[in-house]
C-alpha cells in the first residue's frame, strides 16, 4: 500500500515537472515570438550563420564544429568539420567557446576559433590562486580563488564549400 502510494506521488511529480518544462516561455515583449528550431542538441555555445550562404555553423563546448545546410535542417543533419576534443579543456565554463568567419569570407577563407587548453606541462591544473589586486577592488573583498587557464585563438583555412574535409589547415 505504501509502495503504491509512493509510486503515485512520484508519477504525479514527474507529470508536474514535464508540464513545467513544456510550458511556454514568458516573453517581456508581446511582439516577440519564440520558436524552437532544434531540440536535443547538446553542448552548443554559439550559432554562426555562414556569410553569403544558407549554411549554419554550430560551436560545441567539447570541441566540435558542425555545419548544417540551413537553419531548416533537422538537428541530426549536420557534417562535423572539426573535432579537437583532445585539445580542448572542457571543464566548467571552459571549452571551445567561439568561432568567427573572416569578414571577407569566402574570399579570405579563414575561420577563427577560441578555446581553453590545458597546460601540456601541468595538465588539469588551473593555478587557482587569490588575486590580491582583484580582491581589493571588490566590496566586500573577494577572496575566492581566481583560476587561470591557457587559451588559444586559432586561425583555420577552410574550404568555402564547408563540406566533408572542410578544414584545410591550421595557420
How does this model look, in words?
By secondary structure, the protein is α+β, with helices and mostly antiparallel strands. The chain has a 4-stranded antiparallel β-sheet, with no helix packed on it. A 4-stranded antiparallel β-sheet has the order 5-6-9-10, with no helix packed on it. Strands 7-8 form a two-stranded antiparallel ribbon. β5 and β6 form a beta hairpin. It is globular and about 50 Å long.
Features:
171 residues; four-stranded antiparallel beta sheet
Please give the share of residues in helix: 10-25%
Query: Average pLDDT across residues?
Result: 78
Query: pLDDT below 50 for ≥5 consecutive residues: which ranges?
Result: 14-23
Relative strand content: 25-35%
Q: Label the structural class.
A: alpha+beta
What spatial order of strands do you see in the largest sheet? Answer: 1-2-3-4
Order of helices and strands: HEEEEEEEHEEE
Return Rg in Å: 22 Å
Q: Give the total of beta strands.
A: 10
Distance between the termini: 68 Å
**Count of alpha and pi helical runs:** 2
**Tell me, what's the shape?**
globular
Characterize the biggest β-sheet: 4 strands, antiparallel
Amino acid at each position: 500500500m505504501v509502495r503504491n502510494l509512493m509510486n503515485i506521488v512520484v508519477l504525479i511529480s514527474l507529470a508536474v515537472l514535464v508540464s513545467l518544462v513544456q510550458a511556454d516561455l514568458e516573453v517581456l515583449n508581446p511582439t516577440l515570438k519564440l520558436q524552437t528550431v532544434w531540440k536535443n542538441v547538446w553542448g552548443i555555445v554559439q550559432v554562426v550563420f555562414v556569410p553569403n550562404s544558407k549554411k549554419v555553423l554550430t560551436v560545441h563546448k567539447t570541441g566540435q564544429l558542425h555545419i548544417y545546410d540551413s537553419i531548416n535542417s533537422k538537428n541530426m543533419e549536420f557534417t562535423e568539420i572539426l573535432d579537437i576534443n583532445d585539445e580542448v579543456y572542457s571543464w566548467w565554463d571552459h571549452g571551445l567557446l567561439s568561432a568567427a568567419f573572416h569578414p571577407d569570407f569566402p574570399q579570405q577563407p579563414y575561420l577563427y576559433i577560441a578555446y581553453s587548453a590545458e597546460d601540456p606541462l601541468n595538465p588539469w591544473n588551473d593555478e587557482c590562486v587569490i588575486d590580491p589586486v582583484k580582491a581589493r577592488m571588490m566590496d566586500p573583498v573577494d577572496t575566492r580563488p581566481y583560476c587561470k587557464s591557457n587559451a588559444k585563438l586559432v586561425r583555420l583555412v577552410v574550404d568555402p564549400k564547408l563540406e566533408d574535409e572542410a578544414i584545410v589547415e591550421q595557420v
